[in-house]
Design goal:
The complex is a heterodimer.
Chain A: H1 17-25, H2 38-41, E1 79-81, E2 91-93, H3 108-116, E3 131-137, H4 141-153, E4 158-163, H5 185-188, E5 196-198, E6 204-206, H6 218-222, E7 227-232, E8 234-240, E9 245-250, E10 255-265, E11 269-271, H7 278-282, E12 286-287, H8 292-303, E13 308-312, H9 316-325, E14 330-334, H10 347-359, E15 363-365, E16 370-376, E17 379-384, E18 389-392, E19 394-397, E20 401-403, H11 406-412, E21 423-424, E22 430-432, E23 435-437, E24 442-446, E25 450-452, H12 457-472, E26 485-489, E27 495-500, E28 508-513, E29 517-519, H13 520-525, H14 538-542, E30 547-549, E31 552-558, E32 561-568, H15 574-583, H16 589-594
Parallel strand pairs in A: 3-4, 3-10, 4-7, 10-23, 12-19, 13-14, 13-19, 14-15, 21-24
Antiparallel strand pairs in A: 1-2, 5-6, 8-9, 9-10, 11-20, 16-17, 17-18, 22-23, 24-25, 26-27, 27-32, 28-31, 29-30, 31-32
Chain B: E1 14-17, E2 24-29, H1 31-34, H2 74-86, H3 97-108, H4 111-114, H5 119-145
Antiparallel strand pairs in B: 1-2
Helix pairs in contact in B: 2-3
Classes of the chains: A alpha/beta, B mainly alpha.
InterPro entries (chain B): CHCH, CHCHD4, UIM_dom
Main location (chain B): mitochondrion
Subcellular location (chain B): Mitochondrion
């Protein structure tokens, strides 16, 4: 009857754990083939498919952990589908038809939980194993992806993730994106274990990659049981690559030493802080969104009524956060440049970004540098280099990130990159024998684009996975060839995705279809539809901002090579951008632009 | 600039600079010109490996497995699933009962991860329901693609 089995999961492409068992129990009844959701399987047909965030490049999205009030009827539609006599198999499709949001209120039990998060786990060094086959320094996305890869290749492997955070590995991009659409965030963010958000394709998803129950308790790792264990509230402070040993320190000052077979440094990045804001940061009025705890803190401030928040930083995280907070607060967006995203985008598109933010109600404060800040009466007074001042209730610093690795590198005599930062590794992500780096921590050699360091989620996923595979493999390590992408939205009408080097210092060629380019006046009055592109004349364009650019593709060039591709309000085309970047050299970029079907909205 | 400057007489394209230093170029073209076939051809994208690799073996790194193969019952899951995959019994997998029991026993220790037993009744209903709804959605999706 059934000759083979294969599983394809729709909507997040993952198999709910109980499904497999159930399917088996119910004797694999055979139904006809179906596709209940084309967004993930085929990647076509739906607006806003985010190629880098779907499973083809991500670690499997987590199954939302069963929320404690068991009100959810996890309604899983499985269809066993089948096939031919040979190896086609059963396809399991699942569809969660009902995913009721569970309101979480701050109960005493939860308060206890957040209390627990301030302590280390295990509390004492003797709760840690004396040896870890695979030691992962860090508990973020890169470390998690490496753990998956190691455990996939070696099911008997013993993996220890050491993280200074008290929360099991979770996704970071939502912290400046979707999470701000969640109601009751201040309360809910106190229990990150239960925190969910609605991602771009409408699916509700847990912030945590896996619930705590997924991980093997460290004391069981002591007995050399296979599994992935977490040391939370612990930090690796020194490595000895010759001895293959590590010194760990807990937040409470407890120390422990252990040996390892293979070690990955994936300690991630930490937000850069703005010197002028140090005092108000110490007073709790300025923060950076580096962790879910920071989200909780900011949400608490915003919950106190209609507050004014200054978002500082004109890069992608600052711009998207300003957009995301616009519904919750009065947002003043402060940046040095003339327009938001000006360091990434060509000027005409940076002007578009400014318009999109203004349309959301974000107040722009361009060309400003914060030089001083004082706190009084629970408010912050910011002074700027031009002598101006700004009064706000809270400040969020979005000044970029830096790799959190120098102290470890210094204590371990490991090489860091003087300019780019991060541990210097080769194309295979190896720093030394038995020692690897991935994610933000790694300054790696990219065969196509040279030496780089990236702080992108997609890069953390792919480099973490490759490092894990290389660590676990007995064969030859493979080189890292993945070009990572990122995406950002500024409100409902503007989204972009990009791959490669996205730096406005590079020359760019942008191609638009004439119906996606309109004079500003026209754009303001016309509802939608067939505006005549000929109306936009060159003089207006040079006037910087006289023309609207609604949809198009931008190529970033170094000499004649394409080193970056930006898709402006253009979705489902990242696979093409990736191929263009891989090849790099073209005679005529207009011909390349045609591949992107700029004239088709989707 | 390497883009958009060829054959100016035969196109509707307009090109201008959007920065004073001339570094950033914009090319605007008509719908009809953009819809002509490109002279550039790219190789087809490499297919992402699925659960079953071309050689018929199981890809334990498939993201579709979620945490199944890597979680606390990973080894039991692999034993059971491998048994099923390679089973030549009729019906397929009927020789794997024991391995599935072991897996189930393990999973029962992790209710938070592997769901509750009372979901089972739901399953039977869900499977039937999905058979019906799925046919509908297939048709819809096929239409969407056309």
């Amino acid at each position: 009857m059934l000759r083979a089995i294969s599983l394809i999961c729709v909507e997040g492409k993952m198999l709910r754990r109980s499904d497999f068992l159930k399917l088996f129990r119910s004797q694999c009844s055979v139904h006809s083939s179906l596709k209940s959701d084309p967004t993930v399987v085929s990647g076509v047909g739906v607006k806003n498919v985010r190629p880098g965030t779907d499973v083809s490049h991500s670690p499997p999205p987590p199954t939302p952990p069963p929320p404690p009030p068991r009100s959810r009827r996890a309604f899983t539609l499985i269809t066993a589908v089948t096939f031919t006599a040979s190896l086609a198999g059963i396809y399991l499709y699942r569809k969660r038809t009902q995913d009721k949001e569970d309101a979480v209120s701050l109960t005493s039990a939860e308060a206890g939980e957040s209390e627990a998060r301030t302590s280390c786990s295990p509390e004492r060094g003797d709760g840690l194993p004396a040896h870890a086959q695979f030691l992962l320094v860090g508990g973020g996305t890169a470390a998690f992806a490496a753990m998956r890869a190691v455990r996939s290749a070696r099911p008997d492997a013993q993996v220890l993730l050491v993280s200074p955070e008290r929360v099991p590995p979770y996704m970071r991009p939502p912290l400046t994106k979707e999470i701000w659409r969640e109601p009751d965030l201040a309360e809910r963010a106190l229990s990150p274990e239960l925190l969910t958000f609605r991602q771009w394709n409408g699916r509700r998803r847990s912030l945590l990659y896996e619930p705590l129950a997924f991980y093997t308790p460290p004391e069981r790792l002591r007995d050399a049981a296979p599994g992935a264990g977490l040391a939370l509230g612990w930090r690796v402070v020194a490595l000895d690559p010759a001895e293959r040993s590590a010194v760990l320190e807990s937040a409470a000052g407890e120390r422990a030493k252990l040996t390892y077979d293979e070690c990955l440094v994936a300690s991630g990045g930490r937000p850069k802080r703005i010197g002028a804001l140090r005092d108000v940061a110490a007073a709790g009025l300025s923060l950076a969104l580096g962790s879910v705890d920071d989200v909780a803190a900011l949400a608490r401030v915003l919950d106190g009524g209609r507050r004014t928040v200054a978002v500082i930083g004109g890069g992608p995280p600052g711009a998207e956060l300003a957009a995301a907070l616009a519904d919750r607060a009065r947002v003043v967006h402060v940046y040095r440049e003339r327009a938001p995203l000006a360091t990434s985008l060509p000027p005409n598109l940076a002007a578009e970004a400014a318009r999109a933010l203004a349309a959301l109600g974000v107040e722009a404060a361009p060309g400003l540098e914060i030089v001083g800040a004082t706190a009084s009466g629970g408010r912050v007074r910011l002074t700027t280099a031009d002598g101006g001042a700004l009064e706000v209730d809270a400040v969020v610093e979005c000044a970029g990130t830096e790799p959190d690795v120098e102290r470890l590198a210094g204590a371990s005599r490991l090489e860091t990159h003087p300019k780019l930062g991060g541990l210097v590794v080769n194309a295979e992500l190896a720093a030394r024998s038995g020692l690897w780096a991935a994610g933000d921590s790694a300054c790696f050699y990219d065969e196509a684009l040279g030496r780089r360091r990236l702080d992108r989620h997609d890069h953390a996923v792919a480099s973490g996975r490759l490092a894990g595979e290389n660590m676990a493999s007995e064969g030859r390590p493979r080189a890292y060839g993945h070009q990572s992408m990122f995406w950002s939205d500024l409100g409902p009408d503007l989204g972009y995705e990009a791959i490669g080097e996205i730096d406005s210092k590079l020359p760019t060629v942008a191609v638009f279809c004439e119906d996606a380019v309109r004079e500003a006046k026209e754009a303001a009055t016309a509802a939608d539809g067939a505006a005549d592109g000929a109306a936009a004349d060159e003089a207006a364009a040079r006037a910087d901002g006289g023309v609207r650019y609604e949809r198009g593709v931008v190529f970033y060039l170094r000499e004649s090579r394409v080193v970056g591709v930006l898709l402006w309000n253009l979705f489902n085309r990242m696979h093409l951008a990736r191929q263009v970047l891989a090849r790099g050299e073209f005679e005529d970029l207009f011909e390349v632009a045609k591949l992107f079907a700029l004239h088709e909205e989707d | 600039m390497s883009g958009g400057s060829g054959e100016p007489n035969t196109t509707s394209r307009r090109t201008w600079s959007v920065s004073e230093d001339g570094k950033h170029t914009v090319v605007v073209a008509s719908r009809s010109e953009l819809s002509t076939p490109s002279t550039v051809s790219l190789p087809p994208p490499e297919p992402a490996p699925g659960l079953i690799l071309p050689d018929g073996s199981i890809n334990w790194g498939c993201p579709c497995l979620g945490g199944m193969a890597t979680g606390p019952c990973g080894t039991q899951f692999r034993d059971a699933f491998s048994c099923f995959h390679y089973s030549e019994a009729e019906p397929k997998g009927s020789d794997c009962y024991e391995k599935f029991s072991v897996m189930q026993e393990c999973m029962a220790q992790y209710p938070e991860l592997y769901g509750k037993d009372d979901d089972d009744d739901e399953l039977a209903a869900a499977m039937e329901e999905s058979a019906a709804t799925s046919e509908d959605s297939t048709t819809k999706d096929e239409k969407k693609k056309l």
